[in-house]
Specification:
The complex is a heterodimer of chains A (90) and B (275). Helix content of chain A is 42%, strand content 26%. Chain A is α+β, with helices and mostly antiparallel strands and 90 residues long. Chain B is an alpha+beta fold and 275 residues long. Chain B has seven helices and 16 strands. In chain B, α5 crosses α6 (244-253). Chain B is globular and about 55 Å long. The mean pLDDT of chain B is 92. The chains are: A alpha+beta (90), B alpha+beta (275). The A-B interface holds A 14, 16, 18-23, 25, 27-30, 32-35 and B 221-224, 226-227, 230, 236, 240-242, 244, 248, 251-252.
């Protein structure tokens, strides 16, 4: 992914809170994702208008002590979600 | 030609047979499976005895199937195909790849893929005071926790036979059937009768057999449980929203554990506390 990419949640996914995690599933297919709260926050930020760079900036402002990990992990997570079909790029 | 209806998980198939050898196999495999309504049967198998070679022939139409095999291997094949066709039309609840045992009306479900060790664990638990219910298919009706289990002979595959012989030296000599390199162990040998129903589901235990690894029992989160059950749900395409709401209901309402074991007795005390 490049910083200008704008990831967007694919429509139709349901989010269910289970204890301190979130399960995302799409009722039309055999697709389910297990997210911790941080991953769920990233998922919510994917609105199709925000760029990857903007998402990273928001997260790094909120968690400055983890700025390096965020820069490495978030694009990888989004790439995985893109591959599994639960987000798309606008 | 005689006929028997097999009903499980809101699905019914018919099995027709001719000849004494075929009759003996039908009785061995399905003595504990409930009858159904003939009008509801969506599929029919025909099993016949080929006298000359002591072979059995299994046939069906739509879709066409035809297979010859000796008594034991035919038993394994017929059980597999029966599970497939029952699952094909199952609805009204979750049908899972899972073994199940019970005790005092409480059920312990052991979901897992082939080779995960669920059959071996089910046998071991059945010989430790639990009641055998199934080694392969467990059905949980919508909005319920009352398990239904396909009570068929346990299929012990070649790789676990040394483990079973070490733990239960005389088990396979008590009316079990050799099936190729594996064995079929009927419910009666494990002390289970058709009247012994599974009861309310209390706990989910995902077994993982690893002969060289350490014993480990760890609690799973609700989300991990939901994801793991999704991989083992057989009738998803027949259910509203692919069964996800019901899977989440189970994941929210029941404790679930991952069990890694190499010897059955390792699990003894830990499992007694679960159910």
């Amino acid at each position: 992914m490049i910083p200008e990419d704008k990831p967007r949640r694919k429509s139709g996914f349901h989010a269910e809170q289970l204890e301190d995690e979130v399960v995302l599933y799409h009722p039309s297919g055999n697709q389910i994702l297990q997210l911790n709260q941080t991953a769920y926050l990233i998922w919510q930020l994917c609105n199709g208008e925000r760029t990857l760079a903007a998402i990273l900036e928001l997260l790094q402002q909120a968690y400055p002590e983890a700025a390096g990990e965020i820069a490495a992990d978030v694009p990888e997570t989004l790439q995985d979600w893109l591959a599994s079909g639960c987000i798309e790029l606008t | 030609v005689k006929q028997r209806l097999l009903h499980f998980a809101n699905s019914t198939i018919a099995l027709e047979w001719s000849g004494k050898v075929a009759a003996r196999l039908v009785e061995f495999l399905f003595a504990d499976v409930p009858d159904g309504d003939a009008a509801q049967a969506h599929f029919t198998f025909r099993l016949s005895t080929l006298e000359a070679d002591d072979l059995l022939l299994l046939e069906s139409s739509s879709p066409a199937e035809r297979r010859q095999a000796k008594f034991g291997p035919m038993g394994v094949y017929l059980m597999e195909r029966t599970c497939y066709h029952l699952a094909d039309r199952s609805l009204g609840g979750l049908l899972l790849h899972a073994a199940c045992v019970s005790r005092d009306g409480k059920a312990l479900m052991l979901p897992g893929v082939s080779g995960s060790g669920k059959s071996t664990l089910a046998v071991w638990l059945s010989l430790q005071g639990y009641t055998y219910q199934t080694d392969e298919l467990t059905f949980i009706p919508t909005d319920s926790l009352t398990c239904q289990a396909l009570k068929r002979p346990v299929h012990l595959k070649r790789t676990v036979i040394p483990l079973v012989k070490a733990a239960f030296p005389d088990l396979l000599e008590r009316g079990c059937l050799r099936a190729g390199a594996g064995w079929l162990v009927p419910p009666a040998v494990l002390g289970s009768s058709p009247a012994d129903v599974a009861g309310e589901l209390q706990c989910i235990l995902f077994p993982h057999y690893n002969p060289d690894g350490p014993f480990e029992l760890s609690r799973l989160s609700g989300a991990s449980t939901a994801v793991a059950l999704t991989q083992l749900l057989i009738n998803a395409r027949n259910l509203p929203e692919h069964g996800f709401p019901e899977l989440l209901r189970l994941a929210r309402g029941l404790p679930a554990y991952q069990l890694t074991y190499g010897h059955c007795d390792q699990a003894s005390e830990a499992l007694r506390a679960l159910i």
